[in-house]
Amino acid sequence: MFAYLRSLQSDNGRDRRDVIANVFRGIANRMLNGYLLRDVLNLVDSINFKSSDEIHTLGHLYESMLRELRDAAGDSGEIYTPRPVVKFVVQAVDPRIGETMLDPAIGTGGFAVEAFEYLKAQADTVEKRETLQTRSIYGQEAKSLPYLLAEMNLLLHGLEYPNIVYDNSLKVKVSEIGDKDRVDIILTNPPFGGEEEAGIKANFPDDKQTAETALLFLQLIMRKLKRHLPGQSKGGRAGVVVPNGTLFADGVAARIKEELLTQFNLHTIVRLPNGVFAPYTSIPTNLIFLTGPDRRRRSGITNCRCRRAASSIRRPNRSSLRNSPSVWRGSRHGRGGKRTRGG
After folding, report:
1. Band of pLDDT at residue 26, cut at 50, 70 and 90
2. Contact between 82 and 276 (Cβ < 8 Å)
3. Which of 18, 110, 111, 231 has the least C-beta neighbours within 10 A?
4. Cα-flanking dihedrals φ and ψ of residue 84, to 5°?
5. Contact (Cβ atoms closer than 8 angstroms) between residue 107 and residue 150
6. How confident is the prediction for the chain on average, in pLDDT?
Protein backbone atom coordinates (compact mmCIF):
# COMPACT_ATOMS: atom_id res chain seq x y z
CA MET A 1 0.00 0.00 0.00
CA PHE A 2 2.78 2.44 0.89
CA ALA A 3 4.56 1.70 -2.39
CA TYR A 4 1.34 2.41 -4.30
CA LEU A 5 0.77 5.70 -2.47
CA ARG A 6 4.35 6.81 -3.21
CA SER A 7 3.79 6.15 -6.93
CA LEU A 8 0.67 8.32 -7.30
CA GLN A 9 0.99 11.04 -9.93
CA SER A 10 -1.39 13.61 -11.40
CA ASP A 11 -2.36 13.38 -15.06
CA ASN A 12 -1.55 17.03 -15.75
CA GLY A 13 -0.66 19.89 -13.45
CA ARG A 14 -0.75 19.33 -9.69
CA ASP A 15 -3.52 17.74 -7.65
CA ARG A 16 -4.06 15.84 -4.38
CA ARG A 17 -2.31 12.72 -5.74
CA ASP A 18 1.00 14.58 -5.95
CA VAL A 19 0.59 15.75 -2.34
CA ILE A 20 -0.08 12.19 -1.12
CA ALA A 21 2.91 10.84 -3.05
CA ASN A 22 5.21 13.50 -1.57
CA VAL A 23 4.02 12.69 1.93
CA PHE A 24 4.60 8.94 1.65
CA ARG A 25 8.01 9.21 -0.05
CA GLY A 26 9.46 10.53 3.20
CA ILE A 27 8.13 7.94 5.66
CA ALA A 28 8.51 4.24 6.45
CA ASN A 29 5.73 1.97 7.69
CA ARG A 30 6.44 1.14 11.34
CA MET A 31 3.06 -0.50 11.88
CA LEU A 32 4.11 -4.17 12.00
CA ASN A 33 0.70 -5.50 13.04
CA GLY A 34 -1.72 -5.64 10.12
CA TYR A 35 -4.78 -5.82 12.37
CA LEU A 36 -3.83 -2.59 14.14
CA LEU A 37 -3.23 -0.92 10.79
CA ARG A 38 -6.71 -2.03 9.69
CA ASP A 39 -8.22 -0.50 12.85
CA VAL A 40 -6.44 2.79 12.18
CA LEU A 41 -7.67 2.83 8.57
CA ASN A 42 -11.23 2.18 9.72
CA LEU A 43 -11.07 5.11 12.13
CA VAL A 44 -9.68 7.44 9.47
CA ASP A 45 -12.31 6.25 7.00
CA SER A 46 -15.06 7.23 9.43
CA ILE A 47 -13.96 10.89 9.37
CA ASN A 48 -16.05 13.16 7.16
CA PHE A 49 -13.40 15.21 5.38
CA LYS A 50 -16.11 17.35 3.78
CA SER A 51 -17.30 18.57 7.18
CA SER A 52 -15.72 21.91 8.10
CA ASP A 53 -16.32 21.21 11.81
CA GLU A 54 -14.48 17.87 11.73
CA ILE A 55 -11.59 19.31 9.69
CA HIS A 56 -11.33 22.25 12.11
CA THR A 57 -11.19 19.82 15.06
CA LEU A 58 -8.58 17.70 13.30
CA GLY A 59 -6.44 20.76 12.68
CA HIS A 60 -6.41 21.68 16.38
CA LEU A 61 -5.79 18.05 17.37
CA TYR A 62 -2.89 17.81 14.97
CA GLU A 63 -1.28 20.99 16.29
CA SER A 64 -1.60 19.68 19.86
CA MET A 65 0.24 16.54 18.73
CA LEU A 66 3.01 18.66 17.22
CA ARG A 67 3.49 20.48 20.53
CA GLU A 68 4.03 17.15 22.25
CA LEU A 69 6.91 16.19 19.97
CA ARG A 70 9.97 16.49 22.17
CA ASP A 71 12.20 13.66 20.89
CA ALA A 72 14.19 15.88 18.52
CA ALA A 73 14.25 19.00 20.70
CA GLY A 74 17.39 20.95 19.89
CA ASP A 75 18.55 18.43 17.28
CA SER A 76 20.32 20.25 14.43
CA GLY A 77 19.12 23.54 15.89
CA GLU A 78 15.42 22.75 15.39
CA ILE A 79 12.95 24.27 17.84
CA TYR A 80 9.18 24.60 18.03
CA THR A 81 7.98 28.20 17.69
CA PRO A 82 5.25 29.06 20.23
CA ARG A 83 1.97 29.98 18.56
CA PRO A 84 1.70 33.46 20.22
CA VAL A 85 5.08 34.36 18.66
CA VAL A 86 3.94 33.10 15.26
CA LYS A 87 0.67 35.07 15.45
CA PHE A 88 2.52 38.23 16.49
CA VAL A 89 4.97 38.02 13.57
CA VAL A 90 2.24 37.33 10.99
CA GLN A 91 0.10 40.22 12.23
CA ALA A 92 3.07 42.57 12.22
CA VAL A 93 4.09 41.71 8.64
CA ASP A 94 0.45 41.78 7.49
CA PRO A 95 0.43 39.54 4.37
CA ARG A 96 -2.09 40.43 1.66
CA ILE A 97 -3.86 38.35 -0.99
CA GLY A 98 -1.78 38.32 -4.17
CA GLU A 99 1.56 38.36 -2.33
CA THR A 100 3.86 35.34 -2.21
CA MET A 101 4.92 34.12 1.24
CA LEU A 102 7.89 31.79 1.81
CA ASP A 103 9.23 29.90 4.81
CA PRO A 104 12.61 28.45 3.74
CA ALA A 105 12.84 26.40 6.95
CA ILE A 106 9.19 25.49 7.28
CA GLY A 107 9.54 22.79 9.94
CA THR A 108 6.06 21.62 10.95
CA GLY A 109 4.43 24.54 9.13
CA GLY A 110 3.51 26.93 11.95
CA PHE A 111 4.21 30.17 10.07
CA ALA A 112 2.65 28.87 6.85
CA VAL A 113 -0.53 27.76 8.64
CA GLU A 114 -0.92 31.06 10.48
CA ALA A 115 -0.30 33.04 7.27
CA PHE A 116 -2.88 30.89 5.47
CA GLU A 117 -5.46 31.51 8.20
CA TYR A 118 -4.67 35.25 8.13
CA LEU A 119 -5.10 35.39 4.34
CA LYS A 120 -8.23 33.25 4.39
CA ALA A 121 -10.15 36.12 5.99
CA GLN A 122 -9.28 38.28 2.96
CA ALA A 123 -10.33 35.68 0.35
CA ASP A 124 -13.87 36.95 -0.22
CA THR A 125 -14.10 36.15 -3.95
CA VAL A 126 -13.56 33.05 -6.08
CA GLU A 127 -10.50 34.63 -7.70
CA LYS A 128 -8.93 35.46 -4.35
CA ARG A 129 -9.58 31.97 -3.01
CA GLU A 130 -7.94 30.50 -6.11
CA THR A 131 -4.93 32.77 -5.61
CA LEU A 132 -4.69 31.76 -1.95
CA GLN A 133 -4.84 28.06 -2.76
CA THR A 134 -2.33 28.03 -5.63
CA ARG A 135 -0.03 31.07 -5.61
CA SER A 136 0.42 32.33 -2.06
CA ILE A 137 2.10 29.94 0.42
CA TYR A 138 5.48 28.32 -0.27
CA GLY A 139 7.95 26.45 1.90
CA GLN A 140 10.98 24.20 1.98
CA GLU A 141 12.17 21.60 4.48
CA ALA A 142 15.31 19.44 4.50
CA LYS A 143 14.19 16.68 6.89
CA SER A 144 11.59 14.04 6.15
CA LEU A 145 9.58 14.04 9.40
CA PRO A 146 9.02 17.82 9.64
CA TYR A 147 8.24 17.85 5.90
CA LEU A 148 5.55 15.22 6.41
CA LEU A 149 4.13 17.10 9.41
CA ALA A 150 4.05 20.40 7.51
CA GLU A 151 2.20 18.85 4.56
CA MET A 152 -0.39 17.29 6.87
CA ASN A 153 -0.71 20.45 8.97
CA LEU A 154 -1.50 22.58 5.92
CA LEU A 155 -3.86 19.99 4.45
CA LEU A 156 -5.85 19.81 7.67
CA HIS A 157 -6.14 23.61 7.77
CA GLY A 158 -7.61 23.74 4.27
CA LEU A 159 -4.68 24.29 1.88
CA GLU A 160 -5.47 21.67 -0.76
CA TYR A 161 -2.11 21.47 -2.56
CA PRO A 162 0.75 22.70 -0.31
CA ASN A 163 3.68 24.07 -2.31
CA ILE A 164 6.41 22.61 -0.10
CA VAL A 165 9.73 21.39 -1.46
CA TYR A 166 11.53 18.52 0.27
CA ASP A 167 15.12 19.77 0.08
CA ASN A 168 17.67 21.98 1.82
CA SER A 169 17.02 25.67 1.04
CA LEU A 170 20.72 26.41 1.50
CA LYS A 171 21.79 24.22 -1.46
CA VAL A 172 21.31 27.07 -3.93
CA LYS A 173 24.15 29.51 -4.63
CA VAL A 174 22.95 32.88 -3.37
CA SER A 175 24.71 34.67 -6.24
CA GLU A 176 22.43 32.84 -8.70
CA ILE A 177 19.15 33.96 -7.09
CA GLY A 178 17.38 36.25 -9.56
CA ASP A 179 14.26 38.40 -9.55
CA LYS A 180 12.05 35.46 -10.59
CA ASP A 181 13.13 33.60 -7.44
CA ARG A 182 12.29 36.41 -5.02
CA VAL A 183 9.13 36.66 -2.92
CA ASP A 184 7.06 39.38 -1.26
CA ILE A 185 7.14 37.99 2.28
CA ILE A 186 9.39 35.69 4.31
CA LEU A 187 8.21 34.45 7.71
CA THR A 188 10.49 31.94 9.40
CA ASN A 189 12.29 30.65 12.45
CA PRO A 190 15.41 29.14 10.87
CA PRO A 191 17.37 26.54 12.86
CA PHE A 192 20.18 27.97 14.99
CA GLY A 193 22.91 26.24 16.91
CA GLY A 194 23.34 23.67 14.15
CA GLU A 195 26.12 23.40 11.59
CA GLU A 196 26.20 22.94 7.81
CA GLU A 197 28.70 21.00 5.74
CA ALA A 198 31.47 22.52 3.62
CA GLY A 199 29.54 22.08 0.37
CA ILE A 200 26.68 24.23 1.70
CA LYS A 201 29.04 26.96 2.95
CA ALA A 202 30.54 27.23 -0.53
CA ASN A 203 27.22 28.59 -1.82
CA PHE A 204 27.84 31.87 0.03
CA PRO A 205 30.34 34.75 -0.47
CA ASP A 206 33.90 33.98 0.64
CA ASP A 207 33.89 36.57 3.41
CA LYS A 208 30.52 35.41 4.76
CA GLN A 209 30.93 31.66 4.84
CA THR A 210 30.12 30.00 8.15
CA ALA A 211 28.82 26.69 9.49
CA GLU A 212 26.21 28.47 11.67
CA THR A 213 22.81 27.78 10.15
CA ALA A 214 21.15 30.96 11.44
CA LEU A 215 23.67 33.20 9.64
CA LEU A 216 23.39 31.22 6.40
CA PHE A 217 19.60 31.40 6.46
CA LEU A 218 19.68 35.14 7.14
CA GLN A 219 21.82 35.64 4.02
CA LEU A 220 19.39 33.50 2.02
CA ILE A 221 16.44 35.53 3.32
CA MET A 222 18.15 38.77 2.31
CA ARG A 223 18.66 37.45 -1.24
CA LYS A 224 15.15 36.03 -1.57
CA LEU A 225 13.29 39.25 -0.67
CA LYS A 226 12.01 41.28 -3.61
CA ARG A 227 14.13 44.33 -4.33
CA HIS A 228 12.85 47.89 -4.07
CA LEU A 229 12.31 49.09 -7.64
CA PRO A 230 11.34 52.78 -7.89
CA GLY A 231 7.91 53.10 -9.44
CA GLN A 232 7.43 49.34 -9.62
CA SER A 233 7.88 47.60 -6.27
CA LYS A 234 8.12 48.53 -2.60
CA GLY A 235 10.40 45.59 -1.95
CA GLY A 236 9.75 42.49 0.10
CA ARG A 237 9.41 42.31 3.86
CA ALA A 238 10.29 39.70 6.43
CA GLY A 239 9.76 38.67 10.03
CA VAL A 240 12.49 36.37 11.32
CA VAL A 241 13.47 34.78 14.63
CA VAL A 242 17.23 35.15 15.24
CA PRO A 243 19.56 34.37 18.17
CA ASN A 244 21.50 37.12 19.93
CA GLY A 245 24.73 36.22 18.18
CA THR A 246 23.29 37.18 14.81
CA LEU A 247 22.93 40.79 15.95
CA PHE A 248 25.86 41.26 18.31
CA ALA A 249 28.65 38.82 17.38
CA ASP A 250 31.82 39.81 15.51
CA GLY A 251 33.42 38.31 12.41
CA VAL A 252 31.07 36.89 9.80
CA ALA A 253 28.02 37.94 11.80
CA ALA A 254 29.22 41.57 11.83
CA ARG A 255 29.78 41.58 8.06
CA ILE A 256 26.31 40.17 7.42
CA LYS A 257 24.85 42.71 9.84
CA GLU A 258 26.57 45.58 8.05
CA GLU A 259 24.98 44.55 4.75
CA LEU A 260 21.63 44.18 6.50
CA LEU A 261 21.88 47.71 7.91
CA THR A 262 23.20 49.49 4.84
CA GLN A 263 21.18 47.83 2.07
CA PHE A 264 17.94 46.91 3.87
CA ASN A 265 15.52 48.70 6.17
CA LEU A 266 15.81 46.83 9.46
CA HIS A 267 13.09 48.88 11.13
CA THR A 268 12.18 46.86 14.26
CA ILE A 269 13.86 44.49 16.71
CA VAL A 270 11.83 42.79 19.43
CA ARG A 271 13.80 41.25 22.29
CA LEU A 272 12.00 38.09 23.40
CA PRO A 273 11.87 37.20 27.11
CA ASN A 274 14.12 34.40 28.36
CA GLY A 275 12.54 30.96 28.28
CA VAL A 276 10.30 31.55 25.25
CA PHE A 277 11.77 28.52 23.50
CA ALA A 278 12.17 26.28 26.54
CA PRO A 279 12.77 23.34 26.74
CA TYR A 280 14.43 23.41 23.30
CA THR A 281 17.01 26.09 24.00
CA SER A 282 17.96 28.78 26.50
CA ILE A 283 19.71 30.92 23.86
CA PRO A 284 18.44 34.56 23.99
CA THR A 285 16.38 35.29 20.89
CA ASN A 286 14.95 38.26 18.99
CA LEU A 287 12.41 39.01 16.31
CA ILE A 288 13.64 41.18 13.46
CA PHE A 289 11.43 42.90 10.89
CA LEU A 290 12.95 44.25 7.69
CA THR A 291 12.10 45.44 4.20
CA GLY A 292 14.22 45.77 1.12
CA PRO A 293 16.71 45.52 -0.34
CA ASP A 294 16.97 49.23 -1.12
CA ARG A 295 20.50 50.49 -1.78
CA ARG A 296 19.38 54.07 -1.13
CA ARG A 297 18.51 53.11 2.45
CA ARG A 298 20.88 53.81 5.36
CA SER A 299 20.00 52.61 8.82
CA GLY A 300 21.66 51.17 11.90
CA ILE A 301 21.38 49.99 15.48
CA THR A 302 22.11 52.38 18.32
CA ASN A 303 25.33 51.47 20.18
CA CYS A 304 26.27 48.96 17.50
CA ARG A 305 29.88 48.90 16.29
CA CYS A 306 29.01 50.12 12.83
CA ARG A 307 30.29 53.24 11.07
CA ARG A 308 26.82 54.07 9.77
CA ALA A 309 25.20 53.90 13.20
CA ALA A 310 21.94 55.76 13.58
CA SER A 311 18.84 55.48 15.69
CA SER A 312 16.30 54.23 13.17
CA ILE A 313 15.68 51.05 15.17
CA ARG A 314 13.98 51.24 18.50
CA ARG A 315 13.47 48.53 21.07
CA PRO A 316 9.81 48.28 22.11
CA ASN A 317 9.11 48.10 25.83
CA ARG A 318 6.80 45.54 27.42
CA SER A 319 3.72 47.76 27.15
CA SER A 320 4.23 48.31 23.44
CA LEU A 321 4.44 44.56 22.85
CA ARG A 322 1.00 44.17 24.36
CA ASN A 323 -0.44 46.64 21.88
CA SER A 324 -1.21 46.06 18.24
CA PRO A 325 1.85 45.95 15.94
CA SER A 326 -0.12 48.14 13.55
CA VAL A 327 1.21 51.36 15.08
CA TRP A 328 4.90 50.51 14.83
CA ARG A 329 7.12 53.02 13.14
CA GLY A 330 8.93 52.02 9.99
CA SER A 331 6.19 49.71 8.72
CA ARG A 332 5.58 49.26 5.02
CA HIS A 333 2.77 51.82 5.25
CA GLY A 334 5.19 54.65 5.98
CA ARG A 335 7.14 55.86 8.96
CA GLY A 336 4.79 56.86 11.74
CA GLY A 337 1.63 55.94 9.78
CA LYS A 338 -1.05 53.66 11.14
CA ARG A 339 -1.92 50.45 9.39
CA THR A 340 -5.40 49.41 8.46
CA ARG A 341 -5.14 45.83 9.75
CA GLY A 342 -3.53 43.99 12.61
CA GLY A 343 -4.22 43.56 16.26
Report:
1. low
2. yes
3. 231
4. -60, -35
5. yes
6. 79
**What is the pLDDT at residue 294?**
64
pLDDT band at 192 (very low <50, low <70, confident <90, very high): confident
For residues 228 and 222, what is the distance between their CA atoms, to the nearest angstrom? 12
| Alpha helices (H) along 7-125 | 16-25, 34-45, 52-67, 83-93, 110-120
The model scores a pTM over 0.90: no
Task: Give dist(CA 166, CA 146) in Å, integer.
Answer: 10
Measure the CA–CA gap between 295 and 222, rounded to whole angstroms. Answer: 13
Task: Tell whether omega for the bond before 279 is within 30 degrees of 0, i.e. cis.
Answer: yes
Reported as a single tens digit per residue, the pLDDT across 234-252 is 789 999 999 988 898 999 9
Separation CA 243–CA 238 (nearest Å): 16
Separation CA 222–CA 232 (nearest Å): 19
Could you tell me which residue, 98 or 38, shows the higher pLDDT? 98
Between CA 124 and CA 93 the distance in angstroms is 21
Residue 73 identity: A
Class of domain 51-327 as given by CATH: alpha beta
Residue ranges covered by each domain of the chain: 1-46, 51-327
